[in-house]
Amino acid sequence: MSLELTCGGRRSPPRRVPSWWGGYPVGESNALQTCLAHRILALVLDNAVAGGFVSINVARGVALPAATAPRDRILTFSQFLSLTDTVGTTGHGQVLTMSLAGLRWSEVAGLKVGSLRLDARRLNVVAAATEAGGRVYIGPPKSEASRRYVALPRLIVDELQTTIDGQGPEALVFPAPEGGVGRAGLVDVTPHDLRRTFGSLARAAGADLR
Questions:
Q1: Less Cβ around it within 10 Å: N or C end of the chain?
Q2: Pick from 39, 69, 99: which residue ends a domain?
């Protein structure tokens, strides 16, 4: 059995990984992606060595681009309010829910009407969206600990009440216009930035997040 690798349309046997790796996109924006791809490749070759398909793992010891420092973007409350005014009707509710309830994008995208308990000002996280092959799938959260009840500020309750008016329990709270899963129109702000903003705003309000 032979083992070949493909990168950018080029095939190469494992012994040529050091030169093959040079064809992978590099640069500041691709450093993390490159390192993650290398990690997967190294694990595959570890198994190939264990199975006797190759004698050594030549992916080990390959020089990789330096990973950049993680971004530290936390919005102030005024910046957060400005953002909610620029993301459109669907994005407005998503940004509120991520920033003031601390949900991940996957949890917001998988949120269904039946998971809301607006009279009690809370929602139940029981599903999440994942992407694979260019498609979005709704399934369980990433871990059992991710299943939880989340308290909702009045500002979100009023927004969600308007959003779900007339919708059945299986309807997505934030569907895209064409019927898929909606995404907030964020510019230079990521969903993770909004979760970090939630933590910052909650602490400023005196919440204990431990």
A1: C
A2: 69
Count of domains forming the chain: 2
Q: Is the per-residue pLDDT at 107 higher than 70?
A: yes
Fill in the DSSP letter of residue 121.
T
Instruction: Write down the H helix ranges in 51-190.
Output: 77-84, 88-101, 105-109, 154-163
Q: Is residue 175 helix, strand or coil?
A: strand
**Co-location of 95 and 62 in the same domain:** no
- Reduced to 3 states (helix: H, G, I; strand: E, B; else coil), residue 116 is strand
Give, in order, the Cα–Cα distances in Å from 180 to each of 67, 112, 199: 34, 13, 29
For residue 10, the model assigns a pLDDT of: 46
Q: Where are the beta strands (DSSP E) in 24-147?
A: 116-117, 122-125, 128-132, 135-139
